[in-house]
Q: What sequence folds into this?
């Protein structure tokens, strides 16, 4: 058998074009970040603005979150868009619990974040009392740009592996 | 014009009217009827066709009212005749310890949910009601929140959801010999557009029995209105029908202005018409777009939402907000539109016109669309009136009632537009009526935007309208005026008024009770889709399960308006 010599330069070329070095963690995070499947939980006015976010002008698909899923079992990003009332609260928890890991929550608008200007007898004063929220988007309703910003902020958090104590320590509400 | 003498004359032929009270207030005719007579009076009016609509039924708690009334609660009926256009308010006082009253459900079917709501909010018992249960608050809720002694901030938590149940109060149960399957849709479901819950017992593909649950978006508008000054209520009205927010602003401000007895300037009227008609277009866009998308026509949605974005851009240019604009103030508008705005409006009208035609071509003669919608959810004119239908759904059933024509306001009488009317009241007719209304609305906007009257955008009454910011920061009078109005608020005289506008879904009425203070004593909204949705379980019973979605979409149920 004749000895085959591999050209050093060729090897380098081959490595450059076909091999990438990274850490497994980063690799997974990159995937998670760019394939968020949102569940649009639109209950009120914010739900209408969320339609604009998904619609032709603002188009959330440009940011890697285009596959809208209405089944919690297929989604990993819960966008709570609108007022959650006391009557709706058990439904929200039920939906959150059905989602598979990894899962994230964006609270869109003042009502979902704090009850907004409905300091009233039938409105839940902020969904963070029931589910762990990763990103709060302010506004009543927030502009579509603000929602896009919220999604991008979440993507950054995923990419950088930001610790999420609110999620890790979540025990479920005492309903 | 008061007709109260005529009403008195008419009633005295039938009833001993010695205990009745008749008066005329703020352009409304009112009769106070003794509790024992109310059912007879309602029957008399309905059977002799004096009034064919029970527009609204609500209650008022007078326990904190400055003047003592005949009883703690008053139950208030608003009657309307689509033929003579007469309106009448009936009031019945009931005592706190004996808050019971005969139910009007045997006379008007539309009374059903309205009575349930009055029971839920005030605890007034309607005897003879088929299913007097809570309707808006959750099933663990204790107390009656609109009573004056219930604290607005007293939240009560709910831990579970009710199992499948029906409108007659029964639960799902198997029937021997039949293979029934329970079906639950919502409250979080793509086809429910918000927070509706539809429940059915299915026999194969057929709906055997149906029920709905609402209140999942009950955010206490009426209680909030009682705890906020008049101008601060405007943002809350935005969030009633959030698909056409400016129309609610206008309806509310119009009622307060009428109570104050002020007339807004012509320019403000013109801007209000432009806002209202553009909102009507986008409201119908959401309705048609969503209805079509639920039946599988996705491209129509994208075409329509492109148009909607253009209108939102206009609103954004006008005031900075897209959806919830809060542009009206009591007395006029918040500010003048920016330079060139009317030109933009006319430009947008052009593309709206083009876009609506595109959708017309996409859907109107589309075979699948026709087959999914024709003959689905048909309703006769009599039934529609019985249920209290107003707006496009009523017109689709063949009743040409449009308040812009019937009782014009803001100069609608001088504008050239037509009111489309359907024949069968099915989903397809509702679609056609909405489509034509969009075209007519664009026509109205063009007429108004071309001839904007000169003048001010608001009245300048110091006790009603805040001074401009340059005066607030520039001189002491402006500063004082601003301070006084913020601290003391607008104070309409004591009294009551029911005022109404033609909103995108039908008659949007505001019943306002003032005790002469800076906050409304009671503000009741007559939500158009609440009355329409009442007929939904009956409409889908006996039909196919696929048609449920079709009918649901065509009613344009906006949860904010439905549950308030």
A:
């Amino acid at each position: 058998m004749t000895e085959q010599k591999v050209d050093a330069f060729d090897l380098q070329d081959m490595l450059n074009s076909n091999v990438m070095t990274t850490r497994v963690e980063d690799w997974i995070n990159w995937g998670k970040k760019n394939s968020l499947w949102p569940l649009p939980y639109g209950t009120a006015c914010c739900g209408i603005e969320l339609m604009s976010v998904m619609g032709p002008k603002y188009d959330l698909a440009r940011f890697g979150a285009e596959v809208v899923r209405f089944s919690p079992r297929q989604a990993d990003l819960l966008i709570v868009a609108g007022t959650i009332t006391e009557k709706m609260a058990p439904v929200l928890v039920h939906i959150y619990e059905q989602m598979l890991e990894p899962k994230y929550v964006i609270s869109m608008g003042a009502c979902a974040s704090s009850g907004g200007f409905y300091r009233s007898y039938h409105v839940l004063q902020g969904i963070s009392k029931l589910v762990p929220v990763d990103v709060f988007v302010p506004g009543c309703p927030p502009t579509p740009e603000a929602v896009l910003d919220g999604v991008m902020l979440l993507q950054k958090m995923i990419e950088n592996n930001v610790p999420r104590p609110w999620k890790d320590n979540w025990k479920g509400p005492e309903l | 014009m008061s007709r109260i003498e005529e009403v008195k004359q008419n009633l005295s032929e039938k009833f001993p009217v010695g205990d009745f009270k008749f008066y005329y207030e703020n352009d409304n005719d009112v009769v106070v009827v003794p509790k024992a007579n109310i059912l007879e009076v309602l029957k008399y009016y309905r059977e002799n066709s004096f009034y064919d609509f029970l527009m609204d039924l609500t209650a008022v708690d007078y326990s904190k009212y400055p003047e003592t009334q005949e009883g703690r609660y008053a139950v208030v009926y608003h009657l309307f005749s689509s033929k003579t256009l007469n309106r009448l308010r009936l009031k019945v006082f009931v005592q706190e310890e004996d808050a019971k009253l005969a139910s009007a459900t045997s006379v008007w079917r539309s009374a059903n949910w309205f009575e349930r709501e009055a029971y839920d909010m005030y605890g007034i018992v309607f005897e003879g009601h088929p299913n007097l249960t809570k309707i808006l608050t959750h099933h663990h809720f204790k107390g009656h929140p609109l009573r004056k002694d219930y604290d607005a901030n007293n939240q009560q938590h709910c831990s579970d959801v009710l199992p499948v149940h029906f409108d007659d109060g029964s639960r799902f149960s198997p029937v021997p010999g039949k293979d029934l399957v329970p079906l639950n849709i919502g409250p979080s479901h793509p086809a429910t557009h918000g927070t509706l819950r539809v429940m059915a017992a299915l026999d194969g593909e057929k709906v055997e029995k149906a029920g709905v649950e609402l209140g999942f978006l009950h955010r206490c508008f009426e209680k909030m209105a009682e705890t906020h000054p008049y101008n601060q209520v405007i943002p809350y009205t935005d969030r009633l029908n959030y698909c056409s927010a400016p129309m609610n602003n206008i309806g509310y401000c119009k009622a307060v202005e009428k109570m104050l007895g002020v007339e807004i300037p012509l320019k403000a009227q013109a801007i209000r018409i432009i806002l209202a008609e553009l909102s009507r277009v986008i409201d119908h866009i959401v309705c048609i777009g969503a209805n079509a998308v639920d039946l599988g026509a996705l491209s129509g949605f994208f075409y329509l939402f492109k148009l909607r974005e253009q209108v939102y851009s206009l609103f954004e240019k006008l005031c900075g907000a897209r959806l919830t604009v809060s542009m009206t103030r009591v007395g006029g508008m918040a500010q003048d539109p920016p330079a060139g705005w009317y030109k933009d409006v006319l430009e947008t009208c052009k593309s709206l016109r083009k876009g609506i035609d595109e959708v017309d071509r996409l859907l109107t003669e589309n075979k699948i669309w026709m087959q999914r919608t024709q003959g689905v959810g048909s309703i006769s004119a009599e039934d529609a009136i019985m249920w209290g239908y107003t707006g496009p759904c009523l017109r689709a059933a063949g009743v040409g009632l449009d308040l812009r024509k019937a009782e014009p306001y803001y100069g609608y009488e001088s504008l050239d537009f037509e009111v489309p009317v359907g024949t069968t009241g099915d989903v397809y007719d509702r679609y056609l009526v909405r489509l034509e209304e969009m075209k007519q609305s664009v026509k109205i906007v063009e007429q108004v935007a071309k001839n904007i009257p000169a003048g001010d955008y608001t009245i300048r009454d110091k006790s009603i309208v805040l001074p401009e910011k340059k005066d607030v920061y520039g001189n002491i009078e402006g500063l004082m005026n601003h301070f006084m109005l913020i601290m003391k608020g607008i104070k309409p005289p004591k009294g009551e008024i029911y005022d109404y506008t033609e909103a995108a879904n039908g008659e949007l009425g505001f019943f306002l009770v003032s005790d002469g203070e800076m906050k409304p004593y009671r503000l009741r909204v007559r939500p158009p889709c609440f009355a329409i949705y009442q007929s939904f379980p009956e409409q889908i019973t006996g039909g196919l399960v696929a048609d449920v979605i079709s009918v649901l979409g065509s009613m344009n149920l906006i949860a904010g308006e439905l549950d308030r």
Remarks:
- The first strand of chain B starts at residue 21 and ends at 25.
- Residues 4-127 of chain B form a domain with the Beta Polymerase; domain 2 fold (CATH 3.30.460.80).
